[in-house]
User: Which sequence fits this backbone?
């Protein structure tokens, strides 16, 4: 019996995959522990989306090298997207690594571990599957407020900057039945929110059901109070989904819509297959059908060949759309992508830095302005945890996924509380719990 300590890096899909890994290992007599000191094996579930994600893992491997030399750790494994992307190069570069396994190889982990401990050999597996969805594995979730639920794996879009189609393979969807069964399990485990995951959820397809059908089924056939999803692709956003969201109170009024760039030539070089005009049209439709929606986005600055004028187009789209918040990144070339082979990463670092600084400043101003308009409004907040800054306060989220800090006695994570927003900063709303009496008066006056 070996104890395993699993660390997760990167996106929500990796969080979900770590729950699958815990389940697979626990079924095979491995004990998952919460502290590295209690473990003989350290597994790192990694991300490959940006260069700094790689650097973080190499830095961590340097730390583990010393621990392995001192006998504090017996085996080290690198799993996930970075493992798939670098494969054996990873073990060659970092000889302390005993196991390298990609995202479709998790069911083989018990055998790979066995090989390491019984025959002192290294364990590698990078096979990508056209079919693996892990639909038959029940994720071992840590109790909390939100549960992740992956409805599909892989991606067929081949955006030129993105490594995902090479690390996670071809797109394949789970059946509606399997997704619904898992949602029912999540419901019975007491989670108040589920976040539906997929690299491009709009591409979901199973037995004639599309993503809008699936969301309607989840809203109708479960009583999970909050259902979110991430991420849809602007190129094929199903318009019917907007009505499904508008008509079902449990489907959260928040959409993460990755823009990536606001210039048509850059979008074309990225192979995003939509134009600036089409993006604007989609945003208009979303806001018409779901007026109280919060929109968030991802943007890459300094993608190959991006000129100042092309960056200004992205700046203008951000100014016009006014996203509630945005994740803005400098482009970093990823190995094996189409861009790495065909479109040189030629924007100087100082230009990327200037652009990201300008865009972040703009977004901070917009986020702050939008948040100020929340003052005086009432919201139902789902408590997630204690506030990091003040243990006497709660941190919760509105339906639109905005963080609200407030005080409330006799409450706990997972409770819903009505609050009035009294102050706002760029990233957080500050609320005041609406006392029960006042709340009923408000309801009477509606
Ligand atoms: S849609 Fe594009 S950016 Fe998103 S995972 Fe697929 S290839 Fe990557």
Assistant:
């Amino acid at each position: 019996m070996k104890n395993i300590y699993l660390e997760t890096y990167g996106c929500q899909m990796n969080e979900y995959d770590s729950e699958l890994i815990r389940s697979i290992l626990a079924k095979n007599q491995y004990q998952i522990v919460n502290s590295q000191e209690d473990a003989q094996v350290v597994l790192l579930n990694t991300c490959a989306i940006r260069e700094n994600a790689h650097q973080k893992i190499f830095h961590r491997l340097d730390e583990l090298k010393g621990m392995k030399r001192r006998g504090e750790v017996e085996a080290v494994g690198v799993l996930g997207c970075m493992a798939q992307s670098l494969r054996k190069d990873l073990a060659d570069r970092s000889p302390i690594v005993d196991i390298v396994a990609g995202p479709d190889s998790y069911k083989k982990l018990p055998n790979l571990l066995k090989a390491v401990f019984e025959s002192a050999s290294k364990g590698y597996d990078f096979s990508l599957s056209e079919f693996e969805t892990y639909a038959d594995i029940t994720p071992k979730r840590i109790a909390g407020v939100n549960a992740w639920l992956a409805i599909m794996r892989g991606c067929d879009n081949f955006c030129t900057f993105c490594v995902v189609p090479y690390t996670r393979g071809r797109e394949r969807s789970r059946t509606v039945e399997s997704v619904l069964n898992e949602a029912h399990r999540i419901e019975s485990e007491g989670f108040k929110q589920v976040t539906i995951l997929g690299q491009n959820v709009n591409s979901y397809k199973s037995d004639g059901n599309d993503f809008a059908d699936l969301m309607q089924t989840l809203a109708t056939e479960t009583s999970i109070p909050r259902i979110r999803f991430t991420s849809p692709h602007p190129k094929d956003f199903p318009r019917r989904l907007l009505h499904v969201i508008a008509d079902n109170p449990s489907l959260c009024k928040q959409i993460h819509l990755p823009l990536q760039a606001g210039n048509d030539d850059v979008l074309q070089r990225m192979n995003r297959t939509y134009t600036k005009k089409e993006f604007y049209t989609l945003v208009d439709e979303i806001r018409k059908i779901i007026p109280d929606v919060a929109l968030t986005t991802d943007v890459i600055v300094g993608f190959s060949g991006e000129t100042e004028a092309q960056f200004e187009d992205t700046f203008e789209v951000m100014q016009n759309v006014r996203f509630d918040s945005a994740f803005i990144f400098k482009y970093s070339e990823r190995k094996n992508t189409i861009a790495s082979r065909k479109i040189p990463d030629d924007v100087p670092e100082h230009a990327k830095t200037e652009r990201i600084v300008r865009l972040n400043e703009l977004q901070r101003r917009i986020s702050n302005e939008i948040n100020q308009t929340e003052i005086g409004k009432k919201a139902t907040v789902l408590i997630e945890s204690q506030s990091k800054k003040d243990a006497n306060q709660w941190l919760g989220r509105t339906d639109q996924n905005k963080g609200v800090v407030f005080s409330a006695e006799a409450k706990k994570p997972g409770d819903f509380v009505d609050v009035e927003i009294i102050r706002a900063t760029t990233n957080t709303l500050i609320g005041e719990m609406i006392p029960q009496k006042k709340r009923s008066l408000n309801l009477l006056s509606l």
User: Anything to note?
Assistant: The radius of gyration is 23 Å. Residues 155, 157-159, 162, 164-165, 199-200, 233 surround iron/sulfur cluster (CB under 6 Å). The domain at 378-445 is CATH 2.40.50.140 (OB fold (Dihydrolipoamide Acetyltransferase, E2P)).
